[in-house]
Task: structure prediction
Amino acid sequence: MTLTLTMISVSLLMTFILRDTAESIRSKIDITIYFRNDAIKDEQIQQLAEKIKQVNGVIAVDFIDKSEALAIFKRLPINDNIKSPIDEKNNPLPRSVLVDTQNPDDIQAVVNNIDSIDSNDYICSECVSYDQNKEKVDKVISATQFVQLIGIGLSVFFGVIAIFNVYNIIKITITARSDEIEIMRVVGASNMFVRGPFIVEGILYGLIGTIFTTSFLLLMAKLSFGGGSTTNSSGFSISNLLGIDIYTYLVTHIWQLVAVQFLAGSVLGVVVSLISIRKFLKS
Amino acid sequence: MNEVLKIGSSPSVKPPVDQVKKPPLIDFQNVSKQYPRKVALKDVDLKISEGEFVCLVGQSGAGKTTIIKLLTKLEKPSRGKIYVANRSLSDLRSGEVPLYRRKIGVVFQDFKLLPQKTVWENIAFALEVCAFSDKEINRRTEKVLELVNLIKRKDNYPNELSGGERQRCAIARALVHSPKILIADEPTGNLDPINAWEIIDLLYRINQRGTTVILATHNKQIVDRIQKRVILMKAGQIVSDQAGGKYVI
Result:
């Protein structure tokens, strides 16, 4: 049971992490239009921004003027020697419009709207490399689906093993209590009354399995990924590699995971109990 | 519960009764039971009236236990119909079967008492599974323990009882629902003669109170002595059926 629930949990976690990663990559694909010609008026840019906002699939459009661009530049983690020559008086940073789209596919429609401005006056980041990004996103998505498939496969495989295990355990219990079941039936207990204790037993298996699995996963995640403590002398850690703190992810999603484990474990336990007791209740 | 078995409430206190004049309480009509490798019952016709005391005799494998299993609906007949109180058992819905069983008390040769429960708990258990109230459980359990003379042993566990006491406890459990029919399957099989007679006497008294008693046994001495209706079975068939009869081997 614990093994099955662990497999279900790990595959769920991996799926969620990869899905979130894919989503975050998708959301990071946005367009920034830099206006290198300072002759273009702010109003003109704002009008363009308004126009882009109307495009289907556009979530947000931000106009970043020169002073805001400077503020952003000052916050960048780069050497002060590079930052210092640029200030309010001497600000070569271009104004920009940041467009966030719901889906990378919507970018093309946004690009079509910029045609009203002379192509020499702006630089559009991501407009050109969109196809390349799309390819990356697709790779992550297909990796998610692959992991999901493997996860489902392993869960089913261990699920079948767990069914046999729980079936055997419950069958032993039922056989040991067959006299009691027979007496219950003879004195007129309803089938539901006879099944009751075994259903509860099945739920308990689910509960115990959930406790073990959750403790095991938390312990493993803490030891493997927790707080970067495993970073070795070369500065390498798996969490860094994936760009996600798996332990934190696990802790924040623990109740969802417990709910899924308990539900899966209980359903498994109850179904197996009902199957095991079926032949004792045939009349 | 009474909808399941509408059995007349007036007890007959004069066993044996004339089975021809009274409508049968139990009616086997051409019943056969076939197991994969064995014919357990073959074309059995049997009528038992309310209040009767019937001895079902025959060698092991003659079909006595099969009749009991069919009557308690632990088995289904392969052919034929079984009526109890004019209701065909095959027509009982699955939800009605437990209610039907509450109208039948069964006593086994090996007692089938729960070893981890006391005498009181074993009997009360039969009522608990049927969701009786605590008050009713206490009332009925005490009453039936007095009937079988086990009230002083109520806190003892089955392994602390003699064979006769265990069987009396099992009878008490079978009686606690106030069943219309009491089936005793070899109840004296594991008992010494004195205890065996105690049990037969108890069954006789229960019958006197109006309960139909079916006693499956191969104890010739008992059958001959009590002089009740004797149904002799052989190889799944009834070979003789005599009121006040004897066990003829």
